TrEMBL record:
Zn(2+) 1 binds at residues 515, 518, 555, 558. Initiates the restart of stalled replication forks, which reloads the replicative helicase on sites other than the origin of replication. Recognizes and binds to abandoned replication forks and remodels them to uncover a helicase loading site. Promotes assembly of the primosome at these replication forks. This is Replication restart protein PriA. The gene is priA. Its EC number is 5.6.2.4.
Length: 817
DNA sequence: AGCACGCCGACT
DNA sequence: GTCGGCGTGCTC
């Protein structure tokens, strides 16, 4: 009988994606716990690897040999018990490995470095060669030497080392080093009595230790000074402080320090709630006393003050001693929300988003883990906050596609939130002005609760939306980007010294470059995508792989000097507006102008301070920002996103128009929206124009039902990608074959629910060919389907699929391009 | 993944 | 006869 545990071993191999049994040593029995990180010998070479304790089996016997845990890596479990359950669930449902899930949940920066070292074993029986002597000497110097260093130092070390090993002179063993990315702040303080300070200073001066005397002088009035500050202010060096330390004059204290990512200006804004908001807070609050039975959708028009409702609900949870998670689409985009939360909850806030470095993320994680933060605000990965007792999870703008992960595991944050809430007995609030059709359907069927906020918080009417038919504009001779009405409304706003926003969901200057002579279109060398012209850099860029090139002088195909640009992007809009309104100050916000850290909030701040009249941008300008002086919003091409071969494109268009329109007239001034479109008859544009969510929903849900899309059915996509096209094709067919083989064995004859294999609509991206299979769950149980996909693509992966391709599995993908 | 084992060709 | 090339398969 041995004391046994089951662990998940940390390596990214599909072949080791299962639980392994290890023995717990007698000295470890006391401290072993679920979710802990341990170090285990693994494989034939007994290489030490990290592992995570998933099950504690207790006293058991096994019919196979077990190894012993080397050590417990950290006393406090990295994963909570609930997170372990979450890992199991994700692995099962998103068809991925244990480690895919653990990597998504755990912060980076707690790692392990492995290396082989040579140590001396026996004194040699026979005399050694000259080279062997050198190596042995090197090992002797410090008792052990890493193989890597030895081979780096001496070219032929590898051969000699193995010869020495064979002679039993040395032994190769594994060593490891724990990598910890903690930041400490060191504070210096005097540890002599106040009365003795002068005596000490005198003594130091006599010793001609002026720098030290100066430092002591400074500390007399500034006790507990941060070491780096002390150095900077008094000019003291490391040596100065060290000798003071040795003389026993000062002491240094190490404290854990949490890097605080962005020190935003914190603005206090305590707004009194209106009746609707109060009712919403009451409704949510009821859950804390009566229990939360179902998710709550908070459907509030833009500007209805949803954030204030969130704050009140979180306040309530905090006062009950519970923890809260507040999810936002992309935190870098909503600094205002963060600062409002910071104003209300102060130090107890942890902030997680993609702009943070690994170290900063780790710090925020520890802050929560240690209970120094009880509210986490962040992008989708904040759902993995290591809280033990969650009271409420809020997802703001929950319809946003950024809540679906792009990387394996391709999780759906809303789905995970539901599971988390069930485990913690917490409430789930989904807020949006434009709920996704799927979730709204759940409200209709009664699976979700719904609260409506129909009034804008300031009681203002929403801005009037004017729909402008660009076809008619062309017919009447205007071939420009902007209609006359658009320019009139923009000009009016500028004349009144108010601000304007212009939205176009495409960056760059123009989205394709073509030859007027032969019709050739410039495409990316790495992708099968047309290049976008960027006037500011005088070159073309590929928006899929980031590849940049100079703009060619002549057509690469026919050699004629006839290259022209077509289509438009934000840069061209800026150019044209600048031409028409030379006096106006224009800011552009898109991925090109915000790539630098902090550039995003810089632009926002500038526009808020009214240092510019017009803000031109993409998606980024559409959400969350509150600019009180914006009275005009222009949408250059409302139907641009409508023609994608994607079943969600209508929904996305409706949402985008509604969100953008909501930017106008948020304060006392009335707003107006100019909506330009070539196809003005489309239902998503028509309903968006009238703020008619219900009308849009009715139409959309009928279409979804007809075609069996969400929420009436599920889609599972398998994409194989790789550099070698024939290998990609070969492998997707092997997966297809593997699946149909298993299905046939289970009695299936009709495989019409599997579409493809076929080339992806975007068939070549970043030097990789892409082929896909799209599977619908009509006539087959989705859980059964997942099991088969797992068997073929994960369990039997190395038997079926070649090494040179990547397989990506996505359940209900947000797009099948 | 990463390592050991093992089977084969090129060399002392 | 032996060294080391990489193909194969296993990891508690």
């Amino acid at each position: 009988m041995k004391s046994l545990v089951e662990v998940v071993v940390s390596n990214n191999s599909y072949n080791t994606d299962r639980l392994f049994t290890y023995e717990v040593g007698d000295d470890q029995k006391e401290s072993i716990r679920l979710g802990q990180r341990v170090l285990v010998p693994f494989g034939r070479g007994n290489k030490p690897v990290q592992a995570y304790v998933f099950k504690i089996l207790g006293q058991k016997d096994t019919d196979f040999k077990v190894k012993k845990i080397i050590e417990i890596a950290d006393y406090d479990p990295i994963l909570t018990k609930k997170q372990l359950d979450m890992v199991e669930w994700m692995r099962e449902n998103y068809i991925c490995t244990y480690m895919d899930c653990i990597n998504a949940i755990c912060p980076k920066g707690i790692g392990l470095e492995n290396y082989k070292v040579a140590v001396l074993k026996n004194t040699p029986k026979d005399p050694l060669s000259e080279k062997e002597e050198i190596i042995v000497g090197e090992i002797q110097k410090s008792g052990s030497a890493s193989i890597e260093k030895l081979t780096g130092k001496f070219g032929s070390a590898k051969k000699i080392i193995s010869a020495l090993e064979k002679k039993d002179v040395i032994e190769i063993v594994w060593e490891y080093k724990k990598l910890e990315n903690k930041k400490y702040v060191e504070t210096v303080r005097l540890c002599i009595d106040y009365e003795d300070i002068d005596i000490n200073i005198e003594r130091l001066k006599k010793q001609r230790a002026h720098k030290q005397a100066e430092a002591v002088e400074f500390l007399r009035y500034n006790d507990e000074c941060i070491k780096s500050d002390l150095k900077q202010i008094t000019g003291a060096s490391q040596a100065t402080i060290k000798s003071l330390l040795q003389k026993g004059i000062v002491e240094i204290q190490k404290e854990e320090y949490y890097r605080e990512p962005d020190q935003q200006d914190i603005e206090e804004s305590d707004i009194a709630l209106n009746d609707e908001q109060k009712a919403a807070v009451r409704h949510i609050g009821k859950g804390f006393s009566e229990g939360f039975s179902k998710p709550i959708v908070l459907h509030g028009v833009t500007g209805s003050g949803k954030t204030q409702v969130y704050i009140e609900a979180i306040e309530k949870a905090v006062s009950l001693g519970k923890e809260c998670i507040m999810l936002v689409p992309e935190i870098a985009l909503t600094p205002q929300t963060v600062s409002r939360f910071k104003a209300r909850f102060g130090e107890g806030i942890a902030v997680i988003h993609s702009g943070l470095s690994a170290g900063e993320k780790y710090d925020q994680w520890r802050k929560m883990k240690k209970g120094h933060a009880n509210v986490c605000i962040g992008a989708r990965s904040a759902i993995f906050s290591p809280f033990e007792n969650i009271g409420i999870i809020i997802i703001d703008e929950f319809h946003e596609s950024s809540y679906k992960s792009e990387m394996s595991p391709k999780y759906d944050t809303i789905e995970l939130s539901k599971i988390m809430c069930n485990m913690h007995g917490a409430g789930l609030v989904l807020g949006s002005a434009t709920p996704s059709v799927k979730e709204y359907y759940m409200c209709k069927t009664g699976e979700y609760d719904i609260i409506r906020l129909e009034k804008r918080a300031n009681n203002k009417l929403p801005p009037k939306i004017e729909l402008i038919d660009m076809k008619r504009e062309i017919d009447s001779g205007n071939r420009g980007i902007f209609s006359r009405r658009f320019l009139k409304l923009l000009g009016d706003a500028l004349e009144r010294k108010e601000q304007a926003m212009i939205f176009l969901n495409r960056r760059g200057y123009s989205n394709f470059v073509y030859c007027a002579e032969c019709g050739f279109v410039l495409k990316c060398k790495r992708c099968d995508i047309s290049m976008t012209y960027h006037k500011d850099i005088g070159g073309v860029k590929c928006h899929y792989c980031g590849h940049k090139e100079k703009m060619p002088q002549a057509c690469p195909e026919c050699g004629e000097n006839a290259l022209e640009t077509g289509g438009m992007g934000t840069q061209r809009v800026v150019d044209e507006i600048k031409n028409m309104y030379p006096q106006s100050h224009i800011l552009r916000m898109d991925r090109d102008t915000t790539s630098r850290k902090g550039a995003h909030s810089h632009i926002i701040q500038k526009f808020r301070r009214k240092e510019a009249d017009i803000l031109i941008g993409t998606q980024m300008i559409s959400k969350g920002h509150d600019f009180p002086d914006v009275t005009f919003v222009g949408v250059v091409s409302a139907d641009a996103t409508l023609n994608y071969p994607d079943y969600k494109s209508s929904e996305k268009t409706f949402q985008l128009i509604t969100q953008v329109s909501g930017r106008a007239g948020r304060a006392s001034l009335p707003g107006v929206v100019a909506l330009q479109a070539h196809d003005t008859t489309h239902y998503s544009i028509q309903h968006a124009k009238d703020y008619d969510y219900e009308g849009f929903y009715d139409k959309e849900i009928r279409l979804r039902k007809t075609f069996g899309y969400e929420p009436f059915g599920n889609i599972l996509s398998i994409v194989v990608s790789g550099r070698n096209k024939s290998s990609v094709m070969n492998n997707i067919y092997k997966i297809h074959e593997g699946m149909t083989y298993v299905l046939a064995k289970k009695g299936f004859e009709d495989f019409s629910f599997i579409m493809g294999p076929s080339e992806c609509p975007m068939a070549f991206i970043n030097m990789k060919h892409r082929w896909q299979m799209v599977i619908r769950d009509s006539g087959i149980d989705i859980e059964f389907l997942k099991k088969i996909v797992r068997f073929v693509c994960i369990t039997k992966r190395s038997k079926i699929i070649d090494e040179d391709v990547n397989v990506s599995i996505d359940i209900n993908p947000s797009s099948i391009m």
